[in-house]
């Protein structure tokens, strides 16, 4: 995202977002009809668990007849597959009798099923050189240990192929060893039992069932989305042992994202900060001149404190966010529109598109409410954790969901956006981990605020041409007068001495809809002299202010009127007269 348009991504991304849950899955049967042409593959009998309500069919095709529907979480066995379809047997009870049905299911909705059993602490000794594995199968060997290595175990696993494995600790890490490779032994006198206890912190990304045992059906409690849990034990690389509200059980890894409270990127932004208005003011005053001669944020520290208190948002974060997006309150959008966060500013039309706020305070309150209602709300469309976080992209620039967390996931395309805001927070108050280890979280969530009232009114005589049919009246190729653009992107125009309001112009791609001939805006000068002739020696007949819209003069062919040197624009003044301004201080808008 660009300096003043960083919410260009925000403005469009607000329209999107989807979240999975771990409790509701629809009836599934993926269309994989090409499997019918694949050859039949046989393998050792293996147990699987269904991950969705799944149709059992008479043949490996979605076009074949459904035998019955196997509920999610049930166990089936298979020893042959064809393409991505598995021929399975499913046994269930009906009227007190066991009934077995066979048929075909899509492999996308089954996973290998292991049975985990807790045991008394037992020591095992390797019979010979043995391999330790990442899971209770031979797919991924991790460590090779010599004969007579003593291992400690508190869990037995019957894997999907009917093999018995032990989860063992070795050099403070967990592995799995095949039962045939070890034999029971007594505890060595010189070797204490190894019990790895490295605790990790995780964000719960969906309403998540805490189960009594891994892959078990007994649910102890549901952990709400957005909760932080800690775990020091992992089973089969998939199940994490956690405690929530006094209940200890297992949760599935897919709905957890690990993070560490190492800096401001990972604090809960729903906590109250100890920052003072004086500290915020001092930081802004000491830095804004590196970006501009004027800042709308000077002495506005209390506005961040007030908004933080009103909406339950960390005031230090709010100040740092505004400072980052507005270059300490010196950006054109912040000065011209009191818009500190670039709301509404598309990359294609950053200034015209941006919302116009009546005051800096109104803008700060709007964003505080918006963040709390959406990005920091577990039920919000763009919630990925109530923290700044970070984003990770692949080589093609696509976000890797499993390696991204927090507001940075949706709010900004810049992978380092969260880190940049955290850096400002650090410079205002140095990070202290103890302050945020056991945070008091404000869980009051307001409604998402309506787009604030406000508009950009353009000077008289701004001419534009329709690039496509904009209405039944204003057709492609018609020239009309641009009058006003509101914060909700309605555009008032004049045509044939009548006024119309258009609501179908997308400012993210405005060039597909309109092209404006002569709208200019003053930049790079707090005041721009209007000259009687195209020269600095011409008489000073008026001035335009910074960010003021300017009507550039047009000839009869709707071409801009310039001097012979092409360095001056002829302009229309509000008093009906014309003058000249240097092109160096004019930016054309929506050309």
From TrEMBL:
Residues 44-114, 197-260, 517-590 form the SH3b domain. InterPro entries: Cell_Wall_Dynamics_Protein, MGlyc_endo_b_GlcNAc-like_dom, SH3-like_bac-type, SH3-like_dom_sf. SUPFAM superfamilies: SH3-domain. It comes from Neobacillus paridis. This is SH3 domain-containing protein. It comes from the Bacteria.
